[in-house]
Amino acid sequence: RETPVSLSKKCSIPRPTIYITLTKLLDRGLLRRRKYGHKIYWQKSSDEHLESILPSLEKFLMQSAESSQEKIIVTDTAQIVVHKGRKALVDVFTKLIHEHAGERMLAIQGDLAGGQWDEALGLKNINHINDQIKRSGIITEMVTSKGWFATQLGLYGIDWAKSFMGRPIRAQNIESQYLDYASQIFVFKDRVLLVSMSERVFVEIKNSQIAMLIISLIRFVQDHSGVIDANALLQGLIGGHNKK
Known about the structure:
alpha+beta
């Protein structure tokens, strides 16, 4: 019976990383939460429950490794495509980066999504995507919570930080209470991408008018939040990490 604070101290792991891990295990039915007094504690699910969910969990993990694409709606001006699986996600990002070279990509990152990228794609694919973004000259405009970069460094290590650093980035912080979820949104001038890495699902909406709406909402958030120098921050985090 533990709390995130006690786990963080015992494991010497940052608390945001603990929350990400606990949430993933909870989503899969491997953990449960119980309230004792005024605190929420996390516990392993009962042996009976674990035994009952193992077949469905195994099936889910097997399906997550597969790739698929399903076109739901296609018209002259709009198209919705659902992509699923590791390979499909890598292929979609590679295609989008190539098609939108030199353009802007707006993104809002849910705090609990970070750890799922490594599980879904692996660090090699993540770094490959970051390198492609840099080579294509895409300008990334990110909205994250305070401490997001430090958490990612804790999850992925120095190689990730070096791969990410050097991108043209405009990063802004908002309070973590607005990012307490495990999904993300990416927006180009003509499409919106909704990502749930825990389910290996990527919903692509190709419609410039919808993209304009989402861009306007993100611009509002940007106008009411502070700008940070992401590359300088990463450089400092790398230097601090190397001194340990």
